[in-house]
Amino acid sequence: MGMVEFRTVSKYFGNMVVLRDFDFTVEEGEKVAILGRSGSGKSTLLRIVMALETIDRGRVSLDGETLWDADAGVDPGRGGERGRIRHMRSKVGMVFQQFNLFPHMTAVENVAAAPRHVLGIDAGAALALAQELLARVGLADRARHYPSALSGGQQQRVAIARALALEPKIMLFDEATSALDPELVSEVLDVMRALAHERSLTMLVVTHQLGVARAIADRVCFMDEGRIIEEGPTEEFFGAPKNERTRAFLSAVQVA
Amino acid sequence: MQGLTLLWQYRFDILHGIGWTIQIAAGAALVALILAFVAGLGRMSARRPVRAVASIYVEFFRGTSALSQLFWLFFVLPYLGISLSPGLCAVVGLGLCFGAYGAEVVRGAFEAIPRSQRDALAALNFGRLAGFRTVLLPQAMILITPLFSNLAIELLKSTSLASLITIPDLTFQAHSIVNRSYDAGPIYLFTAIVYLILAQTIARSMRRLEVHLGRGLHPARAARVRA
Amino acid sequence: MPFSWSFVWEVLPALGRAAVISLVVTVGGYLAALAFGLVFFGLTRARRESIRRLGRWTIELVRSTPLLIQAYFIFFILPEYGIVLSALTTGVLALGLYHGAYTAEAYRAGLESVPAGQWDAVHSLRFSRFAAYRYVIIPQLLPPITPVLGNTFITMLKDSSILSAVAVPELMFVANDLGSERFQYTEPITLAALIYLIMSLSFALILYWVERRMRRA
Lengths: 256, 227, 217
Prior knowledge:
Chain A is an alpha/beta fold. In chain A, 38% of the residues lie in helices and 25% in strands.
């Protein structure tokens, strides 16, 4: 059983179909890149894994446990459900396109916030852990800076450290480099590459930047209109794309 | 100047009046603060009955004048069997009135926090209370503080209405001195200046609170690394 | 609770007439506030620093002082200088002066919301000062300040109740008066509060409608 499993999942936003009979499996330790145009459903895919969205049909499971089962009638608002969702969320970490750092906290406080207030680790230990993680992403000297004093690349690295603080099994990257100026992309990419070396960490990287996919992924999927049109090992995918739409996308993005 | 000698002559009454003004203002402010958060957050609740009650409270007390609310508590409530002291009438009445305005400020502030912050909290698996306390509330307070500062000054001014339900506050004292001495100008001018000083004190303290809360968000200030 | 409907019907006409007075006072006060606001605002934009400072201090003083005190002040001070006005006029004056300080702020915010480039355009096209304001500046500052000025009217309606203390025969004054006749305050005061509520909600609706039409234009 895969670490992440989608089985005939469908999701609608009103009349719009966002995911269509979607089947998708990610094994433990795999690094998968998901490419596609905006509106292809790739961000929604991540949000479902993060339990920020529900599904309308099908089944999603994480680490062998069922996350969403549309037939079983799931109501995320109820008390018992909330506990279950929080349990599932503890396996997943997410990095957003807009970083979403807490503006009123310094970098180290941002990273220490979840360990302290979610895991209940005491303040001193949480700050020490945070300092270590910031060092890992190369920002030890910026620990006491506020997000407004950090560049985009630095903020995103803090966001990665913040997500790692909860030791998730699955890391989700939602267009993590898309909001960055080109010269800042590499510092974030380096951090992601270092993460990719960890054998047990499963990574799902949604991006429209081909360089990111190439650098990180073992496997690449191309999504369009709520389905996976093509997928394959990275080199094969980029070397010889089989599907017409994939080729169109690749050449369009390459020019841009 | 006759005005100054009058002020000196009645200095104890005036101080007594100022004491009452400050007490009513402080009491009403406390009530209003609590109601502002309860009703403001209540208006954003997922449960419809909570939302309804909060909305009715807010719309009713924003739509009626503070004076009519005070008069109602003072004149009508006794007929319902509840007899509040004038002081309590003023504190409750003004507290309810400004709590309603405060609730709109609270609601606006929380609604202004970008949705992405809630996404981040969800992604980090924050519990509802922890997320509220450590992330949402601090950010809301930065937006709330200047607006509460304005409301606090309005509250201070509306304590003068308490003089109309027999409370011997500053306005009451000034008015009675004028009625006894027929020297209106200097007395009311002096009273105005006292209110001005009180209002400035409130404004200045609130501004200091604002600066303290907002230290992370202004880039120039943030560049100075915290010691 | 002794709530007599017959008393309600008895006092309703008097309260209705008083409500009209409240509206008249509010409208008068509103126009006065718009005018005084212009004066205050003009002071703060004078060429001489001392006049600008006077303007700012006056606005600050008026905004920091209770309306009640200002009403008392005007009510007692004017006769000393030989100016004898009716209670109604005094009330209008007091309301207008007090809220004038707020409308001055609204004018300032409205003016600041007009992009600087508009002034450049107007100068380069050699508009006269009057034409510039009339055709370019004022049309652009009206949409942002309409909600504020609309709310000012509703606030003034509620503040007009304070004028009951200086014998202006408006709604609150009459309600109090009727109540003291037979020492039966419940009906008149409850009714007065409800009438204020109905009036302010009605005007809030009108304001909402006006704002919507402005947005479409």
